[in-house]
Amino acid sequence: MSPGGPSHAVRDWRDALVAVVAGLAAMAVTAALGLWAAGATDLPGGAFPRVVAAVVVMAAGGDIELSGGAGALAETDAHLTAMPLSVSLAGALTLAFLFLRPLRHRAVASTGELLARVARTALLWLAALAALTALARHTFTDLLPADSPADIFGDLLDASPTLGFRADLGSTLLYGLLWVLGVLALALLVSRRAPLPARLVRYQEPVRPAAFAMLFLLLAYVVVGLVTGLVVAATRGHPAETFAVLLLGLPNLVWLAAGLGIGASWEGRVDGPFGLPMPHVLDQVLRGPENSTLDVRSLAEYDSRAWWLIPVAAVLLLAAAFVMAVRSPARTRLWQQALHMGVAFALTMLVVAPLTRLDARYGLSLLGIFEVEALGGEVSLHPRLWAAVGLALLWGLVAGFLGGLLAYRVRRRGEVDGG
Question: Distance (Å, rounded) from C-alpha 317 to C-alpha 399?
Answer without folding.
Answer: 6
